[in-house]
Amino acid sequence: MNETLRTLHDHRSIRAYTDQPVAEETLTALIAAVQHVPSSMNGQQVSLIVVRDAEKRKQISVIAGGQPWIAQAPVFIALVIDFHKTALGVAESGGRQVIHESLEGIIVGAIDAGIILGNLMTAAESLGLGIVPIGAMRANPRAMIDLLQLPLLTFPVVGMCLGYPADRSHRKPRLPLATFRHEECYQGAGLAAAIREYDQILLDHWQKVARGEGTTWSASLAAPYSRVYFPEVYPVARAQGFTNDK
């Protein structure tokens, strides 16, 4: 196993950071690296907003539901679907962009943001930095858009805390590999049994790490997945120009 694979296997979310700053050259190297990852049509329809200002990180923490590690980490990076940038390019050639009016546009932007996020995580961890992705920046997307001064045809899809770990969190077990890897076609016959097995494995893990309040995977999904947990995403995305009608 090489160093890249070891880094990926050792991933854990970090929610406690030291006050050591992330050097500008380190941050620039990380961002320059992930700018080179693939994007659909070479559209490069994602932009990063780097937030180091302590007061602004505190505001993001509140907007994202009160997550203190956002304010504590020295760097927060917002990943933004950016069809504003591509619309300018299309207009430069005399055309009119419509991709942002389709479900395909949302999927393309989200996939490309995910590719960047995954590579950014691995690159940061390879340098000894800690990270935690923040999906709750979509909890109040209008407030996030206003804070980051995002134009129309952009949407803040996910964020990431970045800093040096003050504490190495425990690495959670995952579902059995057979629930993730399917040979030739989707194979769901053993899923229910595998989920029951994993529920017990996760309960045992919580006991081992003295998290008696920890619950099963199934129970942890029951509340959020029984509703639309960020209900403002759709109306705010529409207001930003993502009409989703094609």
Folded structure, characterized:
The protein has 246 residues and is an alpha+beta fold. It has one domain: NADH Oxidase. Helix content is 43%, strand content 12%. The protein contains 10 helices and 4 strands. A 4-stranded antiparallel beta sheet has the order 1-2-4-3, sandwiched between helices. Helix 2 packs across helix 6 and helix 3 (54-63) packs antiparallel against helix 7 (141-148). The longest helix has 24 residues, at 103-126. The radius of gyration is 20 Å and the shape is globular. The protein starts with a helix and ends in a 7-residue tail after the last helix. The mean pLDDT is 96.
Topology (elements, then pairings):
Layout: H1 3-9, H2 24-34, E1 46-51, H3 54-63, H4 68-72, E2 75-82, H5 83-92, H6 103-126, E3 130-134, H7 141-148, E4 154-163, H8 191-208, H9 217-222, H10 233-239
Helix pairs in contact: 2-6, 3-7
Structural class: alpha+beta
N-to-C SSE string, H for helix and E for strand: HHEHHEHHEHEHHH
| Record field, number of beta strands | 4
Mean pLDDT: 96
Low-confidence stretches: none
Strand content bin: 5-15%
Helix content: 40-55%
The CATH superfamily is known as NADH Oxidase
Question: Main sheet, how many strands, which sense, barrel?
Answer: 4 strands, antiparallel
Terminus-to-terminus distance: 45 Å
> Regarding CATH, which class?
Alpha Beta
CATH topology: NADH Oxidase
Query: What's the architecture in CATH terms?
Result: 3-Layer(aba) Sandwich
Enumerate the strands of the largest sheet in spatial order, edge to edge or round the barrel.
Answer: 1-2-4-3
Q: How would you describe the shape?
A: globular
